[in-house]
What we know:
By secondary structure, the protein is an alpha+beta fold. It has one domain: 4-Layer Sandwich (Glutamine Phosphoribosylpyrophosphate, subunit 1, domain 1). It is 33% helix and 23% strand. It has an eight-stranded mixed beta sheet with strand order 4-3-2-6-5-1-11-12. A four-stranded antiparallel beta sheet has the order 7-8-9-10. Mean pLDDT is 94; it is low at 1-6 and 172-176. The site of aspartic acid has 14 residues, from strand 8.
Amino acid sequence: MPAKNSASAPRYALAIHGGAGAAPRAQLSPEHERRYRTGLEAALDAGFTLLERGGSALDAVAAAVHLLEDDPCFNAGHGAALTRDGAAELDAAIMDGRQMRAGAVASVRHVRNPIELARRVMEKSRHVLLVGAGAEEFALEEGLPLVPNHYFRTAERLEQLEAEQRGRHVSDLMPAAAGTVGAVARDGDGNLAAATSTGGMTNKRPGRVGDSPIIGAGTYAKNGVCAVSATGHGEYFIRAVAAHHVCAAVEYRALTLEQAVRELLHEILAALGGDGGLIAVGARGRIVMDFSTEGMFRGARDSSGRQEIAIY
Length: 312
Ligand code: ASP
């Protein structure tokens, strides 16, 4: 759908991503493209409907990410990328820009929707980041749905793992399976929020944690400044403290959100040798989506009428 912009700042806005790195355009079949677009549209609709009804940015990003976790096309929840021993280990984070509260989980193997657990960590615990067995014990106490690890594993992800282990490097975003998911939003009260969820990198070492659940690296939100969710080669995003860098550049150096995102992706990460993408929403509801990879599964909608889903 073509983007439609209006001159007035949108009251509320939502952007989502389904991972950076998309397979070369020629390799993406119309059927796969249709599946990705349908998944992105459903998530965008779910989050945006909440914003339209006066819901919070926090609820909108959680709802969008929850749906993408349930969609086997994306590398989060059901359909996550697999570790080198064939298991799914999931990472997720959520941040509320209101008081800069945050919650995150890493290396969980049985929580059906890691984003819900990240939110419980933020709202119901004294902590910010819980990992592994301790995180799962907390999920149990909170009554969140737990599933056997094979729930997350799909035929496409197994194929991808086997190809990688045979030495054929395949992108985490080969045609049959897209990437990490994330959402950023501004609600009608001006509050900002960000959420990210992932299975990480295919063939990763068990215990490896990427940028997604690291507050300031893959996920960050601060009212009055911006909210950011990243995707890409996590080790580089951690080293660059990517999401926080974007916010700090806007807040302290008065860069526009576009300039800050561009600097991070195309100068700082590029100089380190890393690539990926970012979605961000500014204090006045401006959405920026940029990437240094071939593509990034993404979608945006705001109250001024902007509505788009794109891959390349
Ligand atoms: N950033 C994620 C990680 O490194 C992977 C991705 O976005 O594709 O875990």
